[in-house]
Specification:
Elements lengths: L13 H14 L12 E4 L4 E4 L2 H4 L8 E6 L2 E6 L67 E3 L5 E3 L15 E5 L2 E5 L4 E4 L2 E4 L11 E5 L2 E5 L4 E3 L6 E3 L11 E5 L2 E5 L4 E3 L6 E3 L13 E5 L2 E5 L4 E3 L6 E3 L2 H4 L9 E5 L2 E5 L9 E4 L2 E3 L13 E9 L7 E7 L8 E8 L6 E7 L2 E6 L7 E13 L4 E13 L5
Parallel strand pairs: 27-33
Antiparallel strand pairs: 1-2, 3-4, 5-6, 7-8, 9-10, 11-12, 13-14, 15-16, 17-18, 19-20, 21-22, 23-24, 25-26, 26-27, 28-31, 29-32, 30-31, 32-33
Bound molecules: calcium ion (4 copies).
The site of one calcium ion has 10 residues, from β19 and β20.
Subcellular location: Secreted, Extracellular space, Extracellular matrix
Pfam families: cEGF, EGF, EGF_CA, Fibulin_C
Protein name: EGF-like domain-containing protein
Length: 477
C-alpha cells in the first residue's frame, strides 16, 4: 500500500488519500499505479496515465453547496453561488501523457491541494444573496493585491490613502487608484528627488511684468499704467484718457498717458491741468500800448483815438477828419494828429496883416505899419509823436522867390524855449528843421520859423515867417 501511495507523500490531505483508496476497492475498474502521479490512473489498455475524474468517481466529492470541478490531476470544490461559469483556469499545458517511468515528485504541486490554485484568475460575478462559502484553500485570499474581500464576496479596492497604508512622503499627496495608489505633487509643486518643491514660476517668466512667488502658486501684477488681463499673467495698457484726466487734450501711451494743452495754455506741474499763459508777462513789446491777458490768449488795447492794427499789436491813429468822426464845424478845418484831432478855426489875420490865402497873411510893403514886420506869415500844422527819437528832420523850408544877388538866412525866431529844435541850412535857399531833443507830449508847440532875405546889392532886408504848430501826441506812436 505504501508503495502505491508513494505519490501522496507530498499531499497534505489524508482525506484525499482515503477517498482514492476507497474507490480502488469498490470499483476495481481503476488501478492506481505507482507509476502515475496523484490524480492520475494507469490505463492498461492505453498504457498511460490518465486523469481521474474525481467528480464522477467520488460520491460527494464536495460538500453542501460546493460544486465539484474536475481538474487535470485533481478537482476543485467551488461554491455554486459564486461562479456562474464553470471554472476553467488556464492551466499550463501538462506534459501529458506522463511517461510511464516518470514518477512525478509531487507532479503538480499547486493542484495537489485540489483548489485555490489560481485565485488571481477569478472573475468576480454579481453579488448574490446566498452566503458564500469558499473552497478550503491554504489561506490564500481570493482577491488580487490591492483589493480586499468584502462580506458580500466581492473584491473591493483598498483605499490606501484613506487607510493611511500608503508610502507617500509628507510633501506628497496620495491619490487612490483602482488596485493601488499614486503619490504626486499638488499643483504648483513638482517632484525633485522624491520631494515636492514649490515651482518658482517667477523664474520661468510666468508673469509678463511683476511676479510674486508663493508656496504652491504665484501671483502676477502689473506696473502702474497697466492692468492685469483675465489670464492673470499678461498686462494690458490702461487707456487713461477714457477717464478724461486732462484739462484739454489727452494722448494715451503704452503704460502712461500725456496731456497737452491748447494754444495759449501750459501744462501745470500736476501734468493734467492746463493753465493760461500770461503772454503779457513775457515781453513789454508784445503790444504797442497795453497788453491784457485773457484765458488762452491776450489782447492789445490802444488808447482813445487809436485802433488796433491788423497785426493785433500796433496802435493806429483814427483819422477822425477822414472818417468824419469829428466835431468840427463846416467853417473849421479838421486837423488830424496821432491820437486825436483838432478843429482849426478859419484864418484870421491880425492887423495890419491881410489874408492872402486860407493859410497865409501878408503885410503890404506900402503900409507903414508893416515896416519891420515879416512880409508874410504862413500857417502850417504838423503832428509829432511824443518821444520821437532824435535827431530827426521834421520840416523843410525853401525860398519860393529868389532875387538875384540875394541870400537867405533860416532861423527859429520863437517857440524854441526848450531848445528842442535846430534849424539846419541845407542850401542857400533851403533849410531843415531838426528835432534835437525828444519832446514829451501831449503838447502843442508853436514855432515861428523865419526866412530872412538879404540883398546887399539893392540894400534890401526882409523876412517871411512860417508859423508852425506842432501837435505832440501823448503816446509815442
Ligand atoms: Ca510658486
Ligand atoms: Ca496708457
Ligand atoms: Ca493768456
Ligand atoms: Ca487822429
Amino acid at each position: 500500500q505504501t508503495v502505491e501511495m508513494r505519490g501522496f507523500r507530498l499531499c497534505s490531505s489524508k482525506r484525499f488519500v482515503l477517498i482514492l483508496l476507497q474507490f480502488s476497492k469498490e470499483s476495481g475498474g481503476w488501478f492506481l499505479s505507482s507509476t502515475c502521479s496523484e490524480g492520475f490512473a494507469y490505463d492498461r489498455r492505453g498504457r498511460q496515465c490518465i486523469d481521474v475524474d474525481e467528480c464522477r468517481v467520488i460520491p460527494d466529492a464536495c460538500r453542501g453547496d460546493m460544486r465539484c470541478v474536475n481538474q487535470n490531476g485533481g478537482y476543485l470544490c467551488l461554491p455554486r453561488g459564486l461562479y456562474s461559469q464553470p471554472y476553467r483556469p488556464e492551466v499550463p499545458a501538462l506534459p501529458e501523457p506522463y511517461p510511464d517511468t516518470g514518477v512525478g515528485a509531487g507532479g503538480y504541486p499547486d493542484v495537489s491541494g485540489g483548489a485555490g490554485a489560481y485565485p488571481e484568475s477569478f472573475v468576480p460575478g454579481p453579488p448574490r444573496s446566498v452566503e458564500p462559502s469558499y473552497p478550503r484553500v491554504r489561506g490564500t485570499a481570493p482577491c488580487i493585491l490591492g483589493y480586499t474581500l468584502a462580506e458580500d464576496g466581492t473584491c473591493n479596492d483598498i483605499d490606501e490613502c484613506e487607510t493611511n497604508s500608503h508610502h507617500c512622503n509628507p510633501t506628497q499627496v496620495c491619490i487612490n487608484t483602482a488596485g493601488g495608489y499614486t503619490c504626486s505633487c499638488t499643483e504648483g509643486y513638482w517632484l525633485i528627488g522624491g520631494q515636492c518643491h514649490d515651482i518658482d514660476e517667477c523664474r520661468y517668466g510666468y508673469c509678463q511684468q511683476l511676479c510674486a512667488n508663493v508656496a504652491g502658486s504665484y501671483s502676477c501684477s502689473c506696473n502702474p499704467g497697466f492692468v492685469l488681463n483675465p489670464d492673470g499673467r499678461t498686462c494690458q495698457d490702461v487707456d487713461e484718457c477714457e477717464e478724461e484726466p486732462c484739462s484739454h487734450g489727452c494722448l494715451n501711451t503704452y503704460g502712461s498717458f500725456m496731456c497737452n494743452c491748447d494754444e495759449g495754455f501750459e501744462l501745470a506741474a500736476d501734468g493734467t491741468t492746463c493753465m493760461d499763459l500770461d503772454e503779457c508777462s513775457f515781453s513789454e513789446f508784445l503790444c504797442q500800448n497795453r497788453c491784457v491777458n485773457t484765458p488762452g490768449s491776450f489782447t492789445c488795447i490802444c488808447p482813445p483815438g487809436y485802433y488796433v492794427y491788423e497785426d493785433g499789436r500796433s496802435c493806429e491813429d483814427y483819422n477822425e477828419c477822414e472818417t468824419g468822426n469829428n466835431t468840427c464845424t463846416v467853417n473849421q478845418v479838421c486837423f488830424n494828429y496821432q491820437g486825436g484831432f483838432t478843429c482849426l478855426d478859419p484864418l484870421q489875420c491880425p492887423l495890419p496883416y491881410v489874408e492872402v490865402s486860407d493859410n497865409q497873411c501878408m503885410c503890404a510893403a506900402e503900409n507903414p505899419q508893416c515896416r519891420d514886420k515879416p512880409f508874410t506869415i504862413l500857417y502850417r500844422h504838423m503832428d509829432l509823436s511824443s518821444g520821437r527819437s532824435v535827431p530827426a528832420d521834421i520840416f523843410q523850408m525853401q525860398a519860393t522867390t529868389r532875387y538875384p544877388g540875394a541870400f537867405y538866412i533860416f532861423q527859429i525866431k520863437s517857440g524854441n524855449d526848450g531848445r528842442e529844435f535846430y534849424m539846419r541850412q541845407t542850401s542857400n535857399v533851403s533849410a531843415t528843421l531838426v528835432l534835437t531833443r525828444p519832446i514829451k507830449g501831449p503838447k502843442v508847440v508853436v514855432l515861428d520859423l523865419e526866412m530872412v532875405t538879404v540883398n546887399n546889392v539893392i540894400n534890401f532886408r526882409g523876412s517871411s515867417i512860417i508859423r508852425l504848430t506842432i501837435y505832440v501826441s501823448e503816446h509815442p506812436f
